[in-house]
Amino acid sequence: MKITILGSGTSTGVPEYKCQCDTCQDARVYGSKNYRSRTSIHVEITTSDNIKHLQFDVGPNFIDQIDRCQIDRIDAVIYTHCHADHISGTNDLVMPCRKQNMDMPIYGPTETMSILQRNFDYMFRKDTFQGGGVAHLVPNPVTGPFNLFGLNIVPIPVQHGTVDTFGYRIQNFGYIPDVKLMPSQSLELLKGVDLLIIDALSFNPGHPTHFSVQDAIAIWEKIQPKNTYLIHMMHRIDHRYFNDQCSEQGFDLPESVRLSFDGQVLQL
Predict the structure, then answer these.
(1) What is the pLDDT of residues 176-188, one digit of tens each?
(2) Both ends of the chain: CA-CA distance in Å?
(3) 101 lies in a domain?
(4) Helix (H) or strand (E) holding 229
(5) Global confidence as pTM
């Protein structure tokens, strides 16, 4: 399994608009790991037939992300939830659909499918598929584990604000990009994963909708994956000084817990 971190940032991205903090200033330097577009990943996985390409969320940076990371195919899109930083690039699915000459199957919480069909109604009707400028999407509401290309995909229900939100597990990989509270049943679904990518917005445990770094480490302690990467990070986290920042907060960073960054490729 090959996992490409297309984006590692929170809804504002990093650098934040007009912010002059040290992290945002560094993020404006070409090649900085502190540059973070909106959170999204791409998974390439070998099935019994061939390699399948699964896209998780399509935010406002989507088309630039897949071009920059040289993603040459998308076989299905899986949404975690309906917040704008995870769905607002949906219109740009026109390019993969056009280049691949296909309708695009999409999966996600029932609420997300409904909002997509409302906001992008023209993408769900064949009669608007004219001139090559509109993709046609095939919605598949997710209410439990489902089979996709012979893969068993397990949704992980989590609490994140007031919208229905899933993380997902594929084989021994767990992906939880947006979470504030994880029910015990969901934690059980993650046990045994070797690789976990999980939300860690900042060092503030009081944020109403996101894990802090400390919260993410608490999950790592409970399930003990071999490797954990933090994602959906705001500008208060700095790649250059992260270990020192953790020490300032009164804890040591476990060796197997690391920050993700845009363009990073993980092999599992």
Answers:
(1) 999 999 999 999 9
(2) 5
(3) yes
(4) strand 227-231
(5) 0.96
